[in-house]
Structures are given as C-alpha cells and as structure tokens.
Amino acid sequence: MKTVNFGKKINCTMVTQIHTLFFSPTGTTAKVAKQITAGLDVPALTYNLTTQKDRNQHRKLSFNSDDLLLVAVPVYAGRIPEFMEELFSTFEGQNTPAIFTVVYGNRDYDDALLELKDLFEGRGFKGIAAGAFIGEHSYTEKVATNRPDAEDLSAAFQFGQKIKATLDELPKLKNHRLTVKGNVPYKERKPMPLMAPETNEKCTDCGVCVEICPMEAIDQTDNRTIHAEKCIRCNSCVKHCPEKAKSFTHQIFIEFSERLIQNCSSVRKEPELFFL
Ligand SMILES: Cc1cc2nc3c(=O)[nH]c(=O)nc-3n(C[C@H](O)[C@H](O)[C@H](O)COP(=O)(O)O)c2cc1C
User: Fold this and answer.
1) How far apart are CA 146 and CA 133, in angstroms?
2) Consecutive sets of 10 residues in the chain, 276 residues long: mean pLDDT of each?
3) Domain ranges in the chain?
4) Is the peptide bond before 148 cis (omega within 30 degrees of 0)?
5) Quick one: which H or E segment has residue 108?
6) CATH number for the domain formed by residue range(s) 198-262
7) Rounded Cα distance, 130 and 156, in Å
8) Bridge partners for 18 per DSSP
9) Per the omega criterion (within 30 degrees of 0), is the bond before 191 cis?
10) How far is the C-alpha of 33 from the C-alpha of 71, rounded, in Å?
11) Ligand 1, CB within 6 Å, residue ranges
C-alpha cells in the first residue's frame, strides 16, 4: 500500500498489489476467493496452493506493508486443513494487511476463521476483514448443493468492494483489532480411521486424479491404488474423475454423510463478514 498524492489535495492510501492465496480441492474456495479479488479491483497475483507441487513452489513467501494478502481455505472438522499450518508458518508479513476467508459446507465453521486469523496475525499480518462463506459439501452434493451460487458470489464480490472502500481509512484504524467468531482452545481434531476412495471398473487410468490430488496419494502407475495414509478425504478425485470411477464406500463415511444430509441440508446458512 502506498500513500499517494494525486496532484491536488487528495491523499489516498492505495493498494498496488493483492496476493490471493487459496487451497481448494473441490473448487468452491477458489470461486469465492476469485470473486473477493474481483471486487477489490486491484492488480492481483494468485497463488493456487492446492497441489503439493504448487505448495512446494510457494514456501517462505514474504510480504511487506505495501501488499494486501487474501488467504482462503476450506473448513475441515471445524478447523483449517491441518497440513496447511506448516506451509503458512513459512510465510512472513511486515504489518501486512490481510483478509481471512474460510469456506464451509453449511454445517459450521467453528474455530477455523479464528485459527486462520491467529496464525497469520502471529506472523506479521494485520487482519482488516474476514469472511465465512458456504460451498457445496465435499462429502455430498446434497448439502449446500451448487454453492457458492450467484447470491454467494455476489456477496463475495461486494465484500471485496466494501474492503476496497475502507482501505483509505486503515491508517486511522491502526489500533483497532479484527474480531471474528471462534473459541480458544480450538475445536479438537478427532482421530479418524484411515480411509481412501475406492475405484470401480470404469477407471481408464487417465491420470486426472493423480494430477489433481492435493496429497499425491494416488499411485502414478496404477490410478486405482490410493494410499490411505496420505488421503485427507478432500474428495477432489471423487468430484473430478471424468468416469465417476471413485467413491468412498466405507460405512463410517456413508453414515457421516447421511447425518450431514439429515442435519444440514434443509437450512441455508449465509455468509458472515467481519470488518475492523
Ligand atoms: C475432511 C473434510 C472435513 C470437513 N469439515 C467440515 C466442517 O467441519 N464443517 C462444514 O460445514 N463443512 C466441512 N467440510 C466441507 C468443506 O468445508 C466444504 O465443502 C468446502 O466448500 C470445500 O472446499 P473446496 O471446494 O475448496 O475443496 C469438510 C470437508 C472435508 C473434505
């Protein structure tokens, strides 16, 4: 951000570059992050951190106070995806303004937004706004079906616009602290039995799943073999497979999905936004 003088008397704080970072195995978080960025309407650098290859390329990023960071992740079990903590812990800001965004599957985002904010604020970033948006649940298309929809995307765009309109006020708000919903200690991550999608006879070994798997859990030579110890159940391979050859068949997964459908498919949750 630079304070620039436009010739006459107008002094205005200007963001010259947004850095948009997201992790998004099934694509909903990416859609929301892109709309917020579009609403901000400032040149943006986008870092898609979804695959291991992407994440390896973007370790140890540092940002200064002229930058604006937008970071967006899906909610996993009420928290941010566990393995992203390690990557985020290599990033550094220098009083860098930041926007925190989580996308969740219409159950709850619990402590994920607070956890994301705490992690980045502990590394030299200053939260200026935060949002929790809704995306189709990775486990089942019957919960939050097709979200983010047009209304959600418009809310995300307007969120970006609203932040842009307040950027000039930031110097005045330097002693304000962003507060978001969430509790400390964060929701406990309960251990889950190891599981991975099964592959049926429709698999053609096309390799799409290998390319998009965020954890490199799918065997490169035999696309039917998924290493359960690496699988995070993100459902990227299930949703991206052109032959619909992959699915979770474990009883525990099926029961969990049924409970989600029962409890979370009839009420429509709406985006929640927080500002300084
Ligand atoms: C392992 C896992 C855990 C999840 N936990 C939650 C949760 O606690 N609350 C919720 O509402 N949605 C939860 N979801 C759903 C995702 O947060 C939601 O579908 C999100 O939109 C997925 O983002 P993506 O499309 O960028 O991958 C979970 C999904 C996965 C794969």
Assistant:
1) 13
2) 42 73 98 98 96 96 95 98 97 97 98 98 98 98 98 98 93 92 97 95 97 97 95 98 97 97 98 97
3) 2-186, 198-262
4) yes
5) none
6) 3.30.70.20
7) 11
8) 44, 68
9) no
10) 8
11) 24-29, 74-78, 103-108, 135-138, 233-235
Q: Tell which residue, 119, 63, 72, has the closest CA to residue 92.
A: 63
In ligand 1, the atom with minimum distance to the C-alpha of 264 is 11
Residues 74 and 169 sit within 8 Å (Cβ to Cβ): no
Q: Is the torsion defined by CA of 135, 157, 82, 240 positive or negative?
A: positive
Q: What angle do CA 32, 37, 38 make, to 5 degrees?
A: 100
Choose which residue among 32, 49, 73, 104 to substitute to test ligand 1 binding: the one with the highest number of ligand atoms within 8 A of its C-beta. Answer: 104
The protein residue whose alpha carbon is closest to atom 31 in ligand 1 is 234
Among 3.30.1330.60, 3.60.21.10, 3.40.50.360, 1.10.3720.10, name the CATH number for the domain at 2-186.
Answer: 3.40.50.360
Cis peptide before 25 (omega within 30 of 0): no
User: Tokens 């497979």 belong to which residue?
Assistant: 241
